[in-house]
Design a protein that fits this description.
Order of helices and strands: HEHHHHEH
Radius of gyration: 34 Å
Number of helices: 6
CATH superfamily: Skp domain
Oligomer: single chain
Shape: elongated
Number of strands: 2
Strand order of the largest sheet: 1-2
Number of domains: 1
């Protein structure tokens, strides 16, 4: 009889076990968000400032290149003119040709150097914006209880309700305005 009671008690306990312990294993609904870094870069005050800074540096470098290219054009015109070609002796023509070739090589080297400088500037400034934005996203995610925030470029499909880009832009603009003061 005691064995029957023990078996009945164990069976009853095992039957009730799933109902008792399920509350401990249930998780809250996972909160997931997505961000679009391209939109952040194009729409935020910091992103626009970085673009302007890169464009300004590029304009300055292009002005230097144009100056040298104008010198090259002047030398080419001088060598191509029939009148000046007859007046110049062969040594002077060779010196002008050599100077022209040297200027052309100088422009090529300068262009490569400028391109490398622009790329380095771009990478440095964009990484600075990205670092600031990632810090904001991390703080926002922790504060709002997000399980995960991913860049939407990696997601095949996400509903628009998961996109927190506009909120991140607002937070970044506030931080950028404080930083720029």
């Amino acid at each position: 009889m005691q064995i029957r009671k023990l078996i009945l008690f164990i069976t009853f306990g095992v039957a009730l076990l799933p109902f008792i312990s399920t509350n401990g294993f249930c998780a809250d609904v996972a909160k997931i968000g997505t961000v679009n870094f391209e939109k952040i870069f194009n729409s935020s005050a910091g992103g626009k400032a970085v673009k302007n800074q890169i464009n300004e540096a590029g304009r300055g470098m292009n002005a230097d290149l144009e100056k040298i290219q104008n010198e090259i054009k002047g030398l080419q015109d001088l060598l191509n003119k029939d009148d000046s070609a007859r007046v110049m002796d062969e040594t002077a023509k060779e010196n002008k040709r050599w100077e022209l070739e040297r200027k052309i090589e100088e422009v090529k080297a300068l262009k490569k150097r400028f391109d490398r400088k622009i790329q380095e500037l771009q990478v440095r400034l964009i990484n600075s914006v990205r670092k600031d934005v990632l810090g904001i996203i991390s703080e926002y995610g922790q504060k709002e209880g997000y399980l995960m925030i991913i860049e939407d470029i990696n997601a095949v499909y996400t509903p628009k309700t998961l996109d927190i880009t506009d909120k991140i832009i607002q937070l970044y603009d506030v931080q950028y305005s404080k930083k720029s003061k």
